[in-house]
Design goal:
It is found in: Cytoplasm; Nucleus. By secondary structure, the chain is mainly α. Among the domains are: 115 residues; 62 residues, no CATH class. The chain has 15 helices and four strands.
């Protein structure tokens, strides 16, 4: 009996050690996976239900971090119609909402940001837009890291220092981009008639792009100073009342629309335009990208959808 009990204890000890080894192995595997993960969070859905309270069917509520994790923003940045929308959303989160995200959402945020930077490095488009995003995020993190004693960031401080170093590295990569002239020798922009050149310039919604275009060639410099061009740009972004408050006269006694534009953007927000946006169904409270079908019970689902700007998307989760 003594030998049997001793053998039984030995088997129990081996079983207990085996369980410990399995748990430790699983934990090491999970930690390794978390450290090397460069993909978005597990959920990648085309729509989510936005609920702001507990019901018999649902417990808890939808947060900004949960919405950011579950909506497929990784695929959205590959769509040129949604790229600017996602970038603007990342910028707004970097300014004021970074600490409201969960640890997984913050990690997902950095993964998506890395994909955005890699896309810009590959196609060499929207460079200035991403530079401003990275600078905004770096400035916010500098402020938050100094307040780490108040536990405003999720995770180890060394991890955030490493992320800040990654941001500096991305900024350096963007600064080193050398845009080369294409080898194509066909019709160029300056070969078009002046009326077509002006028509194309009127499609630019950012005055800085207009200035950069004028610096590309001497002929374009003259066109980029066109008063009617800057007047339409001011009228597009700002109201008549805002314009009347910021009138600037030139030496010839005429309204200097170019100076007025740059003065107005320092005082008022510009009009935002996006090719595609997130939409909220007022009937079933489902959030999805424009054109995405969702299980709506309304008779006319198209009439129930409301387009959300990036700021309105964030405001949706302020309780």
């Amino acid at each position: 009996i003594h030998s049997f009990c001793k053998k039984d204890d030995h088997n129990k000890e081996n079983l207990f050690n085996s369980i410990n080894y399995d748990v430790a192995a699983k934990k090491r595997k999970k930690d390794l996976l978390n450290n090397k993960a460069k993909t978005q969070y597990f959920h990648q859905e085309k729509w989510i239900y936005v609920h702001k309270g507990s019901t018999k069917e649902r417990h808890g509520y939808c947060t900004l971090g949960e919405a950011f994790n579950r909506l497929d923003f990784s695929s959205a940045i590959l769509d040129s119609r949604r790229f600017n929308y996602v970038v603007r959303l990342l910028e707004l989160i970097a300014k004021s909402q970074l600490t409201s995200l969960s640890g997984i959402a913050q990690k997902n945020y950095m993964n998506i940001l890395e994909k955005v930077v890699q896309k810009v490095l590959e196609d060499q488009q929207n460079i200035r837009l991403i530079r401003e995003l990275l600078q905004t995020l770096y400035t916010s993190l500098c402020t938050l890291v100094q307040r780490v004693g108040k536990s405003v960031l999720v995770g180890n401080i060394n991890m955030w220092v490493h992320r800040m170093e990654s941001i500096l590295h991305w900024q350096q990569q963007l600064n080193n981009i050398q845009i080369t002239r294409p080898a194509f020798k066909g019709t160029t922009f300056t070969d078009l008639p002046l009326c077509l050149q002006l028509n194309i310039m009127q499609r630019l919604s950012d005055g800085r792009d207009l200035v950069s275009l004028g610096q590309a060639a001497p002929d374009l410099q003259v066109l980029s100073e066109d008063r009617l061009l800057w007047k339409k740009l001011c009228q597009y972004h700002f109201t008549d009342r805002q314009i009347r408050k910021r009138l600037i006269l030139s030496d010839k006694g005429q309204l200097d629309w170019k100076k007025m534009y740059f003065k107005l953007i320092r005082c008022y927000p510009r009009k935002e335009q996006y090719g595609d946006t997130l939409q909220l169904c007022r009937h079933c409270h489902i959030l999805s990208w424009k054109g995405t079908d969702h299980p709506c019970t309304a008779n006319n689902p198209e009439t129930c959808s409301t387009s959300l700007s990036p700021q309105e998307f964030i405001n949706l989760f302020r309780f």
